[in-house]
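Hi L., both proteins are below.
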Amino acid sequence: RDMIIYSGGTLKTSFPESAELVSTLPGMDRKTVNLKKAMDDDPGHNLPVGLNDRLVVRNMPKDKGPVFGHATLSGEVLFPGQYPITKGERLLSVIERAGGYTAPAYPRGAVFTKERLRKIQQSIFDEVAACIEREHLAKNKHKDATQRLLEQIKTFKCAGRIQVSVTGLDVQRDKGFDIELEDGDTFHVPPLSDAVRIAGAVRKPGLYEHDGQSAYRDYVKAAGGYGSIADEASVFVVKADGGTRY
């Protein structure tokens, strides 16, 4: 660590995970050290050095560039914005760089999207629309209803959302969802909501107060009950994390 400090620190293009400490003593002993851990005074990496020892710091490999792309954090993080990311960088690293969550944050409801996944989803929807237009409309069966469905599909924009299981405000404890980032990824953290949205075939769709005790049937009742065309056997609940319960 002292050698790094005395030399003015490492460059942005330096590879911090693997440097080589070469001894000038007989035998030319070589040790691999992690510079990040050395700077944190980890005794396994902040090794003692002898006279004329050399510390060889390599440049970042091309596939781990200095800047690989950008990820955007928004909502209830301390410093929302667009962050440059390096190859292999993971989500928790950027959340920590953004200062972590704010007090009103509800990480369980976070929305994580990937541009690559969005493009795949949109391609699938476009293929479905083309199939409907080619097969169903050509047969002239239920043409009006099919045309309406086709128009809805064509205007639908996929989000590319990935369900993540965030347990709470402690960033370090959520290693289970520490996903590797790609250029264009977004992570939005909403504030804690006190409402439940009821949609579909009920008499009074809308937002209703969440009391922490009611079941979904209670909210259906609050919304005036099922409508005449409701399929009660197919009711489902979309949780805040994007997961679905039937």
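That was the first. Here is the second:
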Amino acid sequence: PGHHFLQIPGPSAVPERILAAIGKQTIDHRGPDFAEVGAAALAGMKEIFQTKSHVFIYPSSGTGAWEAALVNTLSPGDKILTYETGHFAMLWRKLAKRIGLDPEVIESDWRGGADPQRIEDRLRSDRNHEIKAVCVVHNETSTGSVTHIAEIRQAIDAVGHPALLMVDTISGLASLDFQFDEWGVDVCVAGSQKGLMLPPGLSFNAVSAKALEVNKYAGLQRSYWDWAEMIGPNESGFFPYTPATNLLYGLLEAIKMLQEEGLSNVFARHQRHGEAARLAVRAMGLEVLCAQQGSESGVLTAVLMPEGHSADAFRATALKEFNISLGNGLSKVADRVFRIGHLGDFNDLMLVGTLSGVEMALAKAGIPHEAGGVQAAMDYLVAT
């Protein structure tokens, strides 16, 4: 009995207001009433991305928006530079390779964000400008590490390199500050199921004027993902194919909720909850996976298990005994890490309940730890 705690780092729990909006009757997606819905959604997402440029909305998962970012700007065999911040950065690389690109990877230990100096050094050596795009993940969902995007832009500009800056902020948008225009991003990838608090099913590209110009000459084949097909219909609130009408209803409600709270307050709330979660984990005697100070995420906290103990077995105990779902470790950190999501429609009491579930599950599973983690978080939350 009682409330299930869905504390994975996305999909996040969907608020009742958004569920109610999604449940409205479907309307004619070619009619005048829908034009108002589409136009409001497109305008609202510009505000969320903090941009005056184009935002495109796809009925797809974030993976679709990854592909859209690449096929709309690049040609077969083009070299791109990626940075191994974690599982999702490497998936984007894998997708690039499968569609005919030549991805180069800067390797890392998965314990921090992308290093702008290493990117600058590599671009400086690329005297022939073979690298056409730098692709980084803003908030790496597998590790709980954040890349400082403005510093990556500065690294590209420091050597006068013409490469596009592409950013995956699927789990960062509407939770962490993301300034598309101010930070000089060229293409951004995002999804509906994280900070936007919707079910999976919508994805987004925010696109700079430079990227739109490059799009005219990009040689990769595209149809469904083609930005050029979107621009005309979008101007009047429509789409070139059947849109996810009911998810757009939910998106409008999500944008309204974010506006009511104020984006700066949303960002501060997530940062505060991230700090409280890390204080609790460390007070429990456990180690946070992100070891790079200043790069810790407000969206989730990835926790390393003590040597010799299974993260997946611990998660199974937490689910069975306390009805709480925690995120699993992915690829390199599989069964070594569990992830605590603290994003979306979330408040102090929900965080305390989540951390209580973690601490009780550690005891129930016989995992070596110290008592008092929840108290450390509560003290911080009261003080702030």
